[in-house]
Amino acid sequence: MCGIALILGPGADRAVFRQMLAALTPRGEIDETLLDDAVLAGTRRLPIVDRDRAVQPWLSADGRWLLCYNGEVFNHRELRRELTGRGRTFRTDSDTEVVLEAFLQWGDDVVHHLQGEFALAVVERPTRRVYLARDPLGVKPLYWSRQGGRLHLASEVKALVGVGAPVTEVPPAHHGWADDAGWPYLEPYLDLRRLGERQAPLDDPDEAGKLLRTAFADSVRLRVDTDLTVGVVLSGGLDSSLTLLHVRQEHPDCVAFTVGTPGSEDLTYARRLTADLGVPHEVVELRPRDIRSRTVRETIRMSELTEYGDIINAVVSVPLFRRVREAGVRVVLTGDGSDELFGGYPMYHEVGPERARDLFLHKLRNLGRTELQRVDRTSMGHGVEARVPFLDPALVELALRMPLGLKSRDGRDKWILREAFADLLPDYILNRPKNPMSYSTGLHDRARLFKPRFARMHRSFGYDLLEPVRRDFDSVLMGCDHDLERAVANSVARQDYTRREHLRDVAGAIRWNATRLLRARR
């Protein structure tokens, strides 16, 4: 896991390259570079697998090919055995080397062999052509910018701001080549809409539950294959509790991390579960008054997020991952993605099945710039690798095969998830209603006080080179009666909130915070 930076093209500016790599400093611990007349490549590496030998940029044995790679390929051991059987030899035990050898074996088809969370660039050094690829859901980021006939690539927008040209995202589930003139030609290698279409729908709850249990256990097992201590981000809710239960079973050297206000439900449930399981527990107590303008500004600088709700959620994630790093933990698992897959949002249940599927797919396709971007930036901003077991493609495919009736039943969200793991979860977790921490404890409303400044702060860092801050899509969707096509058009036409909307929102936040303060003084 790391941050990558490259400049390809004659006359590449080494000073610009150093600035790019410096902007990625928090993502790792070691600077590694390879520089020649037309290719400047480097990583800020966070050592996880084969920590001493998995150096980057990684070169093929003949020096023709160069790999810069961010992420983890969890099936690297199986791929190594297959590639060895095909006559390929290895110098390390790292997944980095496996990725390049797999590319040399299968070329563009390599993405269909990699099971993991990745963003990569493979450079053919004599021609300066580069192959780019990003994982199916966009867990790991990759951006590009073109200036002066040269292609600039980096893991974060902040590393490309100094180039002074528009920044473009490599979309999730896309791959392709950039030519020696620096123009990427990318196409999708996976269509989420077609996942599972060749298999029968999963209508039977027993069958769906068994498959779900197996797939989730496999996903967690792959993601805890390390000799390092593994952390779990624990809110005390269904998804993170399931993650902790499985991590503890597969990798007993684990620790849970929870952020919440003193006396909040999250802390109460998380403390009870970790005590019952005998898992060490680190708690970050955060009070609404701890959220100030400088807190929000630093969150925007780190996260680069473009929707208001994601920024507000990131305000809470930053101190959480700061504690993870202070505890010396490099790898954590989170419960992100479960709500999107298994009907954790009310909007899925307010429309018919077909429209619900469209909303479901829209959510998934945009995770890379919303929830997953929040997780990546706030974790890697502290040198912590966050893995998301619910978003393994096998689980995504299962969720796509399930009808809405398995996800919401008898007034309960994520019904199939609760049903499948009912024998593993304690009743107090199984029956806990969904109650997001940031909304239930005042942290969300405290952060809302600063919403009118979000866009200005975002522009001050130059992030509008990618896109400006815009209104929350969920709010637009509600205003359009959950008509997805109309909401997308409306979002394009009116990207940001109006001044009147901001004033109304802030007035509500002021009333809420004032009421809370008066109650606290009684």
TrEMBL record:
> Does this entry carry the keyword Acetylation?
no
Q: What does it catalyze?
A: L-aspartate + L-glutamine + ATP + H2O = L-asparagine + L-glutamate + AMP + diphosphate + H(+)
User: Which pathway is this protein engaged in?
Assistant: Amino-acid biosynthesis; L-asparagine biosynthesis; L-asparagine from L-aspartate (L-Gln route): step 1/1
What domain of life does the native source organism fall in? Bacteria
Domain Glutamine amidotransferase type-2 positions: 2-181
Keyword Iron-sulfur present in the record's keywords: the answer is no
Q: Which UniProt keywords apply?
A: Amino-acid biosynthesis, Asparagine biosynthesis, ATP-binding, Glutamine amidotransferase, Nucleotide-binding
Which EC number(s) does the record attach to this protein?
6.3.5.4
The record's listing under Gene3D superfamilies reads: Glutamine Phosphoribosylpyrophosphate, subunit 1, domain 1, HUPs
Q: What Pfam families has UniProt attached to this entry?
A: Asn_synthase (PF00733), GATase_7 (PF13537)
Per UniProt, the enzyme's principal EC class comes to ligase
In terms of CDD domains, this protein maps to: Asn_synthase_B_C (cd01991), AsnB (cd00712)
- Please name the PROSITE patterns in this protein's record: GATASE_TYPE_2
PANTHER family, from UniProt? ASPARAGINE SYNTHETASE, ASPARAGINE SYNTHETASE (GLUTAMINE-HYDROLYZING)
Which family is annotated?
Belongs to the asparagine synthetase family.
This chain's protein is named asparagine synthase (glutamine-hydrolyzing)
